[in-house]
Amino acid sequence: xxxxxxxxxxxxxxxxxxxxxxxxxxxxxxxxxxxxxxxxxxxxxxxxxxxxxxxxxxxxxxxxxxxxxxxxxxxxxxxxxxxxxxxxxxxxxxxxxxxxxxxxxxxxxxxxxxxxxxxxxxxxxxxxxxxxxxxxxxxxxxxxxxxxxxxxxxxxxxxxxxxxxxxxxxxxxxxxxxxxxxxxxxxxxxxxxxxxxxxxxxxxxxxxxxxxxxxxxxxxxxxxxxxxxxxxxxxxxxxxxxxxxxxxxxxxxxxxxxxxxxxxxxxxxxxxxxxxxxxxxxxxxxxxxxxxxxxxxxxxxxxxxxxxxxxxxxxxxxxxxxxxxxxxxxxxxxxxxxxxxxxxxxxxxxxxxxxxxxxxxxxxxxxxxxxxxxxxxxxxxxxxxxxxxxxxxxxxxxxxxxxxxxxxxxxxxxxxxxxxxxxxxxxxxxxxxxxxxxxxxxxxxxxxxxxxxxxxxxxxxxxxxxxxxxxxxxxxxxxxxxxxxxxxxxxxxxxxxxxxxxxxxxxxxxxxxxxxxxxxxxxxxxxxxxxxxxxxxxxxxxxxxxxxxxxxxxxxxxxxxxxxxxxxxxxxxxxxxxxxxxxxxxxxxxxxxxxxxxxxxxxxx
Length: 605
Known about the structure:
The chain is an alpha+beta fold. The chain has 19 helices and 28 strands. The strands form eight sheets. A six-stranded mixed beta sheet has the order 4-3-2-1-5-6, with helices on both faces. A six-stranded mixed beta sheet has the order 12-11-10-8-13-14, sandwiched between helices. The chain is globular and about 70 Å long. The two termini are 38 Å apart. The model has no long low-confidence stretch (mean pLDDT 96).
């Protein structure tokens, strides 16, 4: 099985580990230190070797930061983790703060004093963030001090070794474009931005560019690495050679040079000394890499990694692969749902046993490479924790007359999936049906949106929330994230969110559509499909070229939770049409018992 439920709750260790860090800081003459949930690549998924925040505090979420100043310490998380942080982090050691409403810079301004030296690891903090923190500390007469030798590592006695996942070549039939072609295409983007070369720090960008995949982090096929990509000429890949077989190394050396990661700083220093203009993403690259160029006389051109947009716009092979992956995954998911509704109401099943069963159905496809993330298998009140991760300690039974939420995904060589369904176990309340239907109306509003070319995700976000807002409700997460092609299940730069990026949605992009509602301590509701951006049909009388979405995900939406009286005629038509498509796409791929269940689950209302 790909999911491990043996999560050790280290909440009680927080005060002791904080004391160890404070002692180490005192030895070094530092007043404080900042510990992000990040590695040198600023990725969402961090190898155990770099999980410093989790080791120090106990918090295992995907976004957060802790800071220590003197005898004060705080942990900052966003709205997805306000419940989880209280369960995992000892409040006696770390004050809880909201990452955006009460940010780190404000806290530092409150607790730091004139003359304080607050340390940070310059490989773990990007330039954009460092500028903000320096300004906040300077306002009270304190300093932000780069510390190359991370003090957390000095007191982390049993720190895991760095990962050495083997690198595999990603076949052209799935990639759709050769590495050399991608290198030349992105090189032109670099030249257009006035740079001589670009620094790539994102492993998914590098994996896409060189058509390789790895296994250095859980559930995402990433080879941790860096690269320098010139506007013209051969790129350089900086990766631990122990990850490369002779065949893989030979293939890579046909398009570029291969060096160890330790050589990256020297290469940037040499580029600086040669007066080169280096394109660096200020929100992704550690400030130490920026300094290596500037301190040696070079010029940094600040801009987004040039691979992000080309990677996000899928080519025809990647789109075909995504469709095939979703049909395969849909058949497995329908078999799971048929089993769930048949067996779970009888009793005896838990969050873990249900998650294991879903994974087993996906394994039976014979194509599963991994999950795309740890399944969020959430019974009853756990559904209100947006990014809940079940453990043997937290495992709840799935009880009758309740709402159960399962958010899961799979990694196949031809595509990455991500689906959330909220399921009725027995009878549910009128209030739960109402909340579910309001969420469904938001989901349908995104699914059926037609929007002018040039629209960004932030402009669509309100569509998902409007019906909830009318009822005085909302959800504290984005409506949609980008998805990679056998890469990250969360991929930028496109997204649908209140504070979404200004990146324009373009045909070939894949995004999730996942509005929700969460009643603390009671239940959670989320409905998620993946959507492909594609050209839309012309609108009579219109004069703008329009885009829309194609739902890639194929799985029934629980009709027992739908209050039909709240749906408009167009919304009901969408639901019936979607369910007809689900049935027609999957019926021939499942056994007769499952097909019979599917016919009932997708019946027209």
